[in-house]
């Protein structure tokens, strides 16, 4: 198995990306192809005591977060994310991993790999830490505006991912809404509720944002605007929580003494809410494995993202998603319900 890694993507590239890739290669997860500026990559590789040689595909073009994704891809056809994605399309790699521009990676996946099977809207599926362990949230930002049948798609894709990759038997699927009652929500969620109620998945109804950390479902479905806002609010809240604890601990000797006793527990808790533990988020619904990493990913996050990519390949996720039921037929159900 070969994994193409965008060595130039992310706030800490190429150093953190190369270190994470080398660790994955050293542990035998997969063969790694690093795509980016060869001189910069080789400089990082020489600084590491690696025993396995990594393949390097050279390019000097990089797409930044400030550039319009689709336009940048047309102007920079040899950009690192484009080349890495093309390796998957050509069968030279089985997955691509990047911590670079999310928009550019989504555009590359759509334009180069194409959509999978009957999927209309690919979605970013990310893991959220909860009291019941990590749960899946999608869409986390690929689709700001959605129609009811798109949420229906997300529910099917999320259910399949939770089953095959996370090992959850009969995953519970919840629709993120402003209330748990079936009559709550806007036109999109009201229509989506009716579709999901009749779908061949384990739909448990509406869930409110405050219930997400409790793990009341295994898959949370929402549009990309809502999902991205929830995700970033959660990251900020976790960071603020630990900053507040540190501030309180430094106020007295007694507090510092108590913190010392709780240190192993606090470290374990911090790991559980750290995005780096979960690696990357797969873009579900494209004809290939594309793993999107946090822009500030460190070595551990890149390593874990490669681990996610390997798992997706092993479980033949793309082939399974291609067999999902045709979603277009659900549009008439929406129109009938609304009319």
Report on the structure:
Homodimer. Probably interacts with PlsY. It is an enzyme of class 2 (transferase). By secondary structure, the chain is of the alpha/beta class. It has two domains: 1-119 and 285-324, Isopropylmalate Dehydrogenase (3-Layer(aba) Sandwich), CATH 3.40.718; 127-275, Isopropylmalate Dehydrogenase, CATH 3.40.718.10. It has twelve helices and twelve strands. The protein has helices at 15-26, 38-46, 69-75, 80-89, 102-113, 148-164, 187-198, 224-249, 253-272, 299-314, 317-321, 330-338, and strands at 2-6, 31-36, 55-58, 95-98, 123-124, 126-128, 135-138, 172-176, 202-207, 219-221, 280-284, 289-293. It has a seven-stranded mixed beta sheet, with helices on both faces. Strands 6-7-10-8-9 form a five-stranded mixed beta sheet, sandwiched between helices. α1 (15-26) links the parallel β1 and β2. α4 (80-89) packs parallel to α5 and α6 (148-164) crosses α7. The longest helix is centred in the C-terminal third of the chain and has 26 residues, at 224-249. The protein is globular. The N and C termini lie far apart (50 Å).
List keywords for this structure.
7-stranded mixed β-sheet; 12 strands; lipid metabolism; 2 domains; alpha/beta; Isopropylmalate Dehydrogenase; EC 2.3.1.274; lipid biosynthesis; 339 residues; 5-stranded mixed β-sheet; 12 helices
- In CATH, the topology of the largest domain is named Isopropylmalate Dehydrogenase
- Helix content estimate: 40-55%
Structural class label? alpha/beta
Q: What's the number of structural domains?
A: 2
Give me the strand/helix succession: EHEHEHHEHEEEHEHEEHHEEHHH
